[in-house]
């Protein structure tokens, strides 16, 4: 029973609570035991709040449990999100004693709906990196193969869900840090439209590119949780005021005639042949369901990595300038090197990069006049081995972190909503993922198509073998 519960999606757990077949206290106990069993292997959690979670669970009544689909259900949050009276380490020695004085906006949203926070998850220090390697709290591993990386920077959130320690988790996504690890671990990873979900109370890395994201087992759960955490936050200057939407309204709806763009370059290049083959099957299925597949040409990607870093590093330096003089020695060598690069970039470089980003947004918006969605692979490679420094594909080598996020980072610059999800298994026994990208604030269209794929047996994947 406990193993079955551990790998249940949020909607299924909500049904069990509604019918009285399980209680919130029992759920917290089951997931807490999973954390005890697998945290030493996975390195998913930095801080576990099992006692607080049990107290919250015990206080909930039937009225509380009727308030939302996530009431009474445990979740985890990346250790960049402030949770009142709990430390927010950001995966670094610099913040090892930092206690939050109030909840982040999204934590408050979940608390009001009686979701139960079970702990804070591991990450690449201050979200600076896509591998999830962390010299202080350990490196998170993949649930399907512990010799491989979970991916990052939201590595602990991915591992926590993939190992069955929580059914859902929050992360942040600056270049793919939710979508890529979700794909590598066989999960659904959502980056909503920029401004859709407030980042207030989240330790910043790069204000221009930071997004709050969600990791779940199913597309429906992602839609349900987005309904809870989205909304206008007047205290967040980037937050956008829009009417509330029922994101799950189109789940399962017919999408015959929907136009799906297939990039003609970059996104289907230098990728594992098995990943490309899996995407071909996805395209065939979408066509069979009445979708129109149309070629699209996205902006030239030659300089996009440089543009992204030229904005990231000065903004990271700005965010950390107050701590460097007194606590500079506590930063990892890797992050200090990034901040040093930020010092070398001129205002001219930063301004030019911001102008590039505006051009990318306009050019991508123009594409969405002709298509409703864009389909790409989630990553060009399956989860790399722990310790991998570079990957080589078609004679071209690149840093492993760059490879992990090669197909995701562009859409942080444009700010369009994007979702990754599993669409098959590699012969090496690891998940393969796809990415769907939509127009600004049209997450419902993504969910509409993604939910069909989620229910199609040909794209289902086995659970990882994680016996305690």
From TrEMBL:
PROSITE patterns for the chain: AMIDASES
Molecular-function annotations in GO: ligase activity; transferase activity
Key words of the record: Ligase, Transferase
Domain Amidase: 26-446
SUPFAM superfamilies: Amidase signature (AS) enzymes (SSF75304)
Protein family: Belongs to the amidase family.
Annotated function: Hydrolyzes indole-3-acetamide (IAM) into indole-3-acetic acid (IAA).
Protein name: Indoleacetamide hydrolase
Species name: Roseibium album
